[in-house]
Each structure stands twice: as structure tokens, then as C-alpha cells.
Amino acid sequence: xxxxxxxxxxxxxxxxxxxxxNRIAEKRQLLGKRLIILTHHYQRLEIVEVGDYAGDSYxxxxxxxxxxxxxxIAFCGVHFxxxxxxxxxxPDQKVYLPNPTAGxxxxxMAPSEQVYEAWDQINESLGKGSVVPIxxxxxxxxxxxxxxxxxxxICTSSNADAxxxxxxxxxxxVFFFPDQHLGRYTAKKFGVPSEQIVLFNxxxxxxxxxxxxxxxxxxxxxxxxxxxxxxxxxxQIDEWRAKEPNIKIVVHxxxxxxxxxKADAVGSTSFIVNFVESAPSGSTIAIGTELNLIHRLAVKxxxxxxxxxxxNSCAICSNMFRTSLADxxxxxxxxxxxxxxxxxxxxxxxxxxxxxxxLEIGN
Length: 363
Hints:
The chain is α/β, with parallel strands linked by helices. The protein folds into three domains: 10-103 and 320-346, 3-Layer(aba) Sandwich (Rossmann fold); 107-225 and 351-361, 3-Layer(aba) Sandwich (Rossmann fold), CATH 3.40.50.10800; 229-316, 3-Layer(aba) Sandwich (Rossmann fold). It contains 18 helices and 13 strands. Helix 15 links the parallel strand 12 (284-288) and strand 13 (305-308). Helix 4 packs parallel to helix 5, helix 5 (79-88) crosses helix 18 (345-361) and helix 8 packs across helix 18 (345-361). The model has no long low-confidence stretch (mean pLDDT 94).
């Protein structure tokens, strides 16, 4: 994924946090409803505090699609999220990614050409019409377009259940990419046996699978994962339970199956937020997801003991962390030269089909 290099003028780098907050507030007041600032749950606390909306990728996609008054959308997240906002928004709306270098390693694990080749191999082996692609939101606009063009839809961790339900009413098999763990977790919830969930390795012919194995499958998973959620291990859960017998463990479904199986609750970032906020005062909770969200939850819920599941491994998404108040301030004060996200029309058309299907099925 090729992104620009973030180059900020010195005045933004040296400005104090309070000055940046004041300047952002001035621009928000000046623009009123013409501006919305969207912030993903994994953003730094100070970014979430100055935003209009905080949410997971599904919630923010809905907001982007349903903001008729907004002329400018500043998306504090990563590249694929801002692309989705541009795809779903009106042609005259302008979408900006404050830090141009904020990408997603998981999305990069599914290069378009590799996915196209895998799709051709799968269809040649199984025949057209038996498989539908479901792309996780954490994918490029090109892959969203591929998904829409081939009759599939996008999902997030919030509505993967609904996406699988939609798919199985229409097709025999699902081709799910790029995150194998969310795909496996969702398939298991649908009662798909382990032997019918297969992992496709794009570096091997037919994904390293035999034709018989492929024909017996109901879910074909791409060999991709989130490097942040890979830090969580089942023995960490055992250690927490030994130290804190009354602890509750909640994790994101991007975690490995062995971690998911030992947790008390599993769900999207929004699910985790709701889990923590609705827990009784005095609760002890260890969370298996990105560190910035855990920090914000701890700050907002001082009556509860909230810990990061992996302890000292620092499960932080460096791409989410890149967006600073300086980046946001520069963007709001320089719309003419800031990092605007524009998806080409030919890609946008098919990608919108897949995203619209996601919004139609709800969560």
C-alpha cells in the first residue's frame, strides 16, 4: 500500500497540545455542520476527545454514509477506513486522512493480484456460483470492488454474523479475507465443523489444499491476521485467572482461536466498550485488543480495574497511533493541500455495491 509521507510544517510540530486543541475548536466552530471528525476507537485519547464521533469501523461507515450536511470529513483512523468513507459519501464531500502514513498491515497481507489469482483457482476447481467473497472492512478499495463485482459484501467484526447469514442463504461456500481469525470464529458460531474450514496459502498452488479438501469446505480463509491481536496468548488468560479469580476476560475476534475459546466474552471494539461500561462497579477486566482503547476505557471507568491482557507486550497499533493533534489541526487549516482520499470512480462503483450490502444487512 503506497501512502504519502507525512510532512508537517514546523509550527504544528512545536505547538502545545492546548494551542492545537484551541485551533481545532476554532475550525469546528467556524465550519459548523459542514465538518465532521470521525475517530476510531483505537485512536489516542486526545484525538477521540476532539472528535464528533467515536466508534468501530462499522459505526463510522454508517455515519459517513448518513451525514448529508458534511462538506468535509476528517477520518482519524487508517487508510482503508477513509477510503470507505469516500466510497459511501456524496461526490461533493471531501474526505481527509490526517496522517497519510496510517495504513493497515493486515490489509496489506491480501494484495489484490494474489486474491484475484486465488479466486480464479477456487472457481476453476469448484465451478462458478458456489462461492461468494466476503471481505473484512480491513481491505483495500480494490478488494472491496472485487467483492462487489463478484456478488459479495463487506463485513466488520460487528456484523460478520449477519454477513455469513446473508451468504449462506445464497451460496454453498464463503471465501473470507484477509483475517483468518474473524472468519474462523464466525464460521464456528454457525456450526461449521473444523474440517470444513480451510486455510488458503496464496504462496502455494491451490492454496496448499487438495482438490478434495477444497470441495469439502464451507469456508475458505485467507492466510492473514492482525499483528496486534497476535500478541495475545491463552497462557496469559490462565495467568490472570490465577492472580484474579473474579476477573472477566473480553477479547476481539481477531485473536487466535485458542484465546477466543478461553475468554468470557468476544466481540468487536464497540462490543468491548459496551461490555466494560455495563460491568458492575468494582469489576476486574482484562481486555485483549489495542492498547489505546484499553487506556481510554480505564480512564473513563475509574471505578473498575481494567488491564491489558498481554501485560507488558505493548499491544499497540502503530498505524492508529500515528494520527496526532498536529496532523488533525494541519488538515483542518489546510484543506487545499491536506491528504485528501479519492477513490477512482471505476473502483468506487463496485466497492459501493459491497459496502451498501453491508449496510443493508445491519448488524
